[in-house]
Write a sequence for this structure.
């Protein structure tokens, strides 16, 4: 049985004092869940968040990193920098980064490789636009993005990657994919991974759904055959709402 992984993506929200208060409120609400809990916070919140989750079951992730080891890349943050302060996860290739910051399948793949080199676990985002969906191309787009993101990784690395299927039209719009559509898309991604890396890897990799996940719709999504939890944006900014999503199975 695959575990469920519920990750919050705060995007460009929350000051350090807000992060500290949030973690203080969230901790007792999720302390007895068997689901994995991750908060992906802005760089400026990482250190405070890491200090404040000590002794809890909450893990911390970053939202991006550069693929180069070090050097003249003003404004960038390296994998080693994240690892050195205790970060465990890193989101790679979020659609907002692909859309506004020129991330491509190629840079996503480079970043995934560098993340593993420094023992960070990548959460790789894939997802189609509305036009692509309406043209019947969703499956082709997301399986291609997945294949390219994972190119050149070992079976073990693929097994330790988390994929987040986030249809772009469902992000921040209040429109959620139906649980059936989301499950089918995720199943297509899983089948592709089985085809390339074998059943063992494909059946054990964690694949989340993201896009307007909230307490009102999470149970239906997370109890399907192939959805292994969620990557939650807006609803992860409120500790009570986020806790309800983490505790969807209570
Ligand atoms: P929303 O949950 O706000 O739609 O955002 C989803 C997302 O982009 C998470 O990475």
């Amino acid at each position: 049985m695959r575990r469920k992984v519920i990750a919050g993506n705060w995007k460009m929200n929350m000051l350090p004092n807000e992060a500290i208060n949030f973690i203080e409120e969230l901790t007792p609400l999720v302390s007895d869940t068997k689901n994995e809990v991750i908060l992906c916070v802005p760089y400026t919140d990482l250190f405070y968040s890491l200090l404040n989750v000590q002794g809890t079951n909450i893990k911390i992730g970053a939202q991006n990193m550069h693929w180069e080891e070090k050097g003249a890349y003003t404004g960038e943050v390296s994998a080693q920098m994240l690892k050195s302060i205790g970060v465990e996860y890193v989101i790679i290739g979020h659609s907002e980064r692909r859309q506004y910051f020129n991330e491509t399948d190629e840079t996503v793949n480079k970043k995934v490789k560098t993340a593993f080199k420094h023992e960070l676990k990548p959460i790789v985002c894939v997802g189609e636009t509305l036009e692509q969906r309406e043209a019947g191309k969703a499956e082709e787009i997301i399986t291609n993005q997945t294949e390219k993101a994972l190119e050149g990784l070992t079976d073990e690395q693929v097994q330790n990657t988390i994929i987040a299927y986030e249809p772009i039209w469902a992000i921040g719009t209040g429109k959620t994919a139906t649980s059936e559509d989301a499950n089918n898309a995720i199943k297509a991604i899983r089948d592709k991974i089985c085809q390339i890396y074998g059943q063992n890897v494909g059946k054990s990799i964690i694949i989340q759904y993201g896009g307007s996940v909230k307490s009102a719709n999470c149970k239906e999504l997370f109890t399907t055959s192939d959805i292994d939890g969620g990557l939650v944006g807006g609803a992860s900014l409120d500790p009570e709402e986020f806790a309800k999503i983490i505790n969807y199975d209570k």
